[in-house]
Description:
2 domains; six-stranded mixed sheet; single chain; Rossmann fold; alpha/beta
Amino acid sequence: MFLRLAYFQLIYVLIPIFILAILYRFKFYKSPVYKYPAIRIFLGSNFIRSNSFKKILFFLRVVTLVGLLFLIMRPQWVDERSKVNVEGVDIVLAIDVSGSMRLIDDLSERKPRIEVAKTEAIRFVEKRPNDPIGVVMFGAEVISRCPLTLDKTVLKEIIGNIQLGDIDYQGTWLGTGLATAINRLRNSKSKTKIIILLTDGSPTPERIAPDVAVEMAKQFNIKIYTIGIGNENGCFENNPLFGLQRFPECALNVQLLKDIAQKTGGKFFRAGNSKEMRLAYDTIDSLEKTKIESELFHNYYEAFLTFIWIILGLLGIEFLLRFLVWRGL
């Protein structure tokens, strides 16, 4: 648990203002001068405060001002790593975001493959509240979009925001995508580690071949479940100029996906529409569970109330000293 400032950038504005205020107070501000004909009477009655009292009151006012500036920057307590014991499986979703994922398989839905993949992936995440899940995207390049996390709110938002074009989509680096997903799982302490690979095509020339990635998965005891997206009867593209166009063949490399799954102890699924993809996820959802200790990152708790009471306390002390204890000029 530590403290952070949500609007820390404001410090570059607030500190100069504070310094200017202090300079004005010491360089240009002049304390009022009172002239009384019977000054000796006031001196004898202890009605005139000493300079030491004034310095204490000034110090309290400065500390209060610094506290208010601190509150403007929105202090928050951060519980960076809250460890919780859960029953779960470490899972990485490796999602194909190549250009062909814009195609449509089911005319009754008319949803692009990427939208079907996102919808069913989010539904799967909702069914696995105790499983750390991460996301890897691959096209003609690869990016680890989200590390293993139990924060399903953030995870669903990340999946829902995936768009074709987030990375170069003119290719399918399937082997490199798998290797990146494996890298996310290699240090996992879970007894069961799986990758769910969703793709609709065949690998294009890349840095790491699929068979090399398969050997890496076997080395780290990682199962790979493959879901081939594409209708066996062909697919469609919604062209903005020519309307709906049909493509008779699907470029899906079924045999490769079957081999990847078989060699790593997983299973291959063919998904020509959202129902078939949902069935694939439901089957994977029946995996055995293992007891692990996982980490939930970045819980934020507002610290405003804690510090506002401190500031109000300082103001109260100054009020009591100024008007009740050290009354006078």
